[in-house]
Amino acid sequence: MRDLLKKLRRYEIQIRKAINSQMQGDFHSVFKGSGLEFDDVRPYQYGDDVRTIDWNVSAKGHGTFVKTFREEKEQTVFFILDVSASEDIGSPGSTKADIGKEICGVLALSASKESGHVGLICYSDQKEKYIKPTKGHQQAYEIIATLARLQPQSDKTDLTKAIAFALNAIRRRSVVILISDFIDEGYEHNLKALARRHDLVVIHISDKRETRLPKLGIIPVIDKESHRTLWVNTSFGDFRKKISTRLAERRTALEKFSRKHQINFISLDTDEDYVPKLLRLFKVRNKSLKT
Q1: Residue 76 forms beta bridges with which residues?
Q2: Which residues make beta-bridge pairs with 175?
Q3: How far is CA 113 from CA 4, 109, 131, in A?
Q4: Residue 86: exposed, middle, or buried by beta-carbon count in 10 A (0-12, 13-18, 19+)?
Q5: Residuewise pLDDT in 10s, the chain (291 residues)
Q6: What's the CA gap between 100 and 121, in Å, rounded?
Q7: Residue 55: Cβ within 10 Å count
Q8: Distance between CA atoms of 87 and 265, rounded to whole angstroms?
Q9: Please, how many CA atoms are within 13 Å of residue 103, restricted to the half-sphere of its CB?
Q10: Could you give phi then psi for residue 65, rounded to 5 degrees?
Q11: Which domains does the chain have, with CATH numbers?
């Protein structure tokens, strides 16, 4: 746990320095409040939007008043992490699950330093862990510790149910960061609804073992979610190419879907340094928040 914290702090400092210097921006804007909250009322002036009139105050007979708003300075950041068994693919210490947990930890540390409220949903085909959002460094450490010791009760995946749970649980508009390998079907409708309601970031994680199978002849392949053993001939015809193509098509479709619905999207492999891709993601978010 101590080594993990040291690693996450090092990455977090690396990201923070890059954003503050290279991008000529500030880290706060990455998690900046994107909504408005009620501030006060003032007398109506010519040209004011009539939709902002506070009819309750105006009805008291002292004139017509409009509501004024201020930008929310505190943002809520929610992580939705897929912890199903398919996430266990990868080399020891660098499985899809490991990388997803690290990214949650790094960004939780970052958000907590910007006075953000941070929450967590871990999901398989059922709720595995839910941490209500609150702010402070202790919250970030609690999330990291929870992820380090988490032992999911189910191996299966159901992204539709995971997103439905998030839609019910996350009431206030938030930055929602969904991390998964997205090996599932039929979740797009709920994902679209999540994107409409929140500022959504999708992080797709894959592992080369899924796309670069060696020619090993007939071998047993265990489905981690169903625990079924299938015997497949990895040297037969275009077996390996079909698997690789199918996963590539799935990733491309998710990227196109994200672009269409204004979802920030990045795709990572378990053996690559994810910090540069997170930096590029933040650069895009910095620009969009300033325009």
Answers
A1: 117
A2: 77, 199
A3: 18, 6, 18
A4: buried
A5: 778 888 888 888 877 777 666 545 555 556 654 454 556 788 988 888 777 888 888 888 888 988 876 555 567 899 999 999 989 988 888 999 999 999 999 989 888 877 778 999 999 999 999 999 998 889 999 999 999 999 999 999 999 999 999 999 998 888 999 999 999 999 999 999 999 999 999 999 999 877 666 565 565 555 656 667 666 665 665 766 777 788 889 999 999 999 999 899 999 999 999 988 988 888 777 666 555
A6: 13
A7: 8
A8: 19
A9: 35
A10: -125, 150
A11: 2-22+77-290 (3.40.50.410), 36-71 (no CATH)
Q: Which residue has the tokens 């990733």?
A: 251
Residue where the block lists tokens 């378990």: 270
